Amino acid sequence: MALATYSDLKTSIANWLNRSDLTSEISEDFIVLTEKDFNSKLRIRKMNATENSFSINAETVALPSGFLQVRDFYILEGNTKHPLNYITPAQMDQIKGSSTSGMPETFTILGDNFRFAPTPSSTYTGVLNYYKEFDPLSNSNTSNYILSNHPAIYLYGSLYHAANFLGGIEPAQAQQWQQMYATALERLERNDREDQYGNAPLQQRSDVTVGGSFNDRYVAVTNNNQ
Q: Would you call 9 exposed, middle or buried from its count of C-beta atoms within 10 A (0-12, 13-18, 19+)?
């Protein structure tokens, strides 16, 4: 069947598993786990987002919704860009003891917040380029880029997580689903890089965190659905 919508996907997963009794598990576990997994692994153009007027008015400021990773961050004053340099939380603790207020020069990430130093002396306008997770599927958001263009990622990822949940599925079948999921992820990333760079030699970039295989080791588990 075509996998055009969230409903189509849930029906297809149930059909592949030959289980009509896993409605909540499919929507709340298998699909959600797949989304968390591919959002943590992929860094492609469709995940690029920009906040052109990011308000920096306190030592800590909340991360944008769906934030995954910074690509570029600077304060804009007129036509002048003042770069914000990342430091580790430990380094931030070391410099905060003697820092004064002023225009921030550095930042770190603590939990769901940015932390800046020096502490902003007024409100500054930041420009934040970052990777953002894909909007999750739901009854109100019935499709997204991944489902529309790479439905195999959702299907085989969900089947793989279902295999771990259900137990009793042949390890060879679970491994096949996992491999097909990994292949779909690798194909998406390869196509994205080719679209950006054509036949030019690829170089490792600091803001690309996925450099190897998407394979995870499959470990058979006992049936926890009894």
A: buried
The answer, as to whether pTM is greater than 0.85, is no
Query: Nearest to residue 96, comparing CAs of 113, 118, 81?
Result: 118
Q: How far apart are CA 31 and CA 161, in angstroms?
A: 8
3-class SS shares of the chain: helix, strand, coil, % to 5: 40, 25, 35
Let me know if 142 is exposed, middle or buried by CB neighbors in 10 A (0-12, 13-18, 19+): middle
- Beta-carbon count within 10 A of 104 CB: 25
The pLDDT tens digits of the residues spanning 104-120 come to: 999 999 999 999 999 99
Q: Which residue has the tokens 């003697």?
A: 98
207 vs 184: CA distance, rounded Å: 21
Q: Maximum Cα–Cα distance for the chain, whole Å?
A: 64
Task: Convert the pLDDT of each residue in 179-212 to its tens digit.
Answer: 999 999 999 999 999 988 776 665 555 443 334 4
Within 13 A of 72's CA, how many CA atoms are on the CB side? Answer: 11
Residue with tokens 């998406």: 188
